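Comment on the following before class.
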Amino acid sequence: NACLVEDEIRIYEAVNIALAVDSIDGLFILQYDVGLRAGSDQCPPPTDTLYLANCDVSGDGVCDSVDALFILQCDVGISNTFCPSAIAAQTWLRNDGRARSEVRIDASWPGQIITVPIVANLDDANLGAASLALHFDPARLRPIACMADPNQIFDLALCQRSDGVLRLNLVSIEGAEGQIALANVTFRVLGSPLDATALELDQRVLVDSQGNAIRSPLEKVVLLGPR
């Protein structure tokens, strides 16, 4: 949809009038669905509202949790009627320089099963939405399971596995605080003795319940050593 912003016509697809549709939109839609955020037909919309014209991505005539689910599915690469598989996959091919953290794994035990926790430490903020990509070498590690939100504190949580990357998306309407278990990812170790590999965590989106970016993301979300 087109908006007139600073005497310039701009095309936006997101309910928060951003250039990309991602987990922040899912957060805002869930908040709207339960009455914590107002909707607006004005473009750009007033502060603390969402743009209703971009909300109904499912095409059922309403703006609700179904739309949030479709957006989160697209953001982790799961195709649906809103995003064909080719488009969903392309959104994860961009190397945009966002914050990353890394953990090394001793792969000297071929066949060993290991679990790597992904944890957020938020003492001075709450976590409204997170989109993460965990990159790995498929010749060295084979993903067996990805348990998103193991403590069941988020309103929506998705984890999608594919070759070389696991995509994780979580949304909490009111925001989660403290030490938060985002996911437990389980791998089977492959390769020869004395080999090693690295897991790299790409933090694509990390915002509070108001949609504001969380500062120092590398210090907030970490990969713990395998267990």
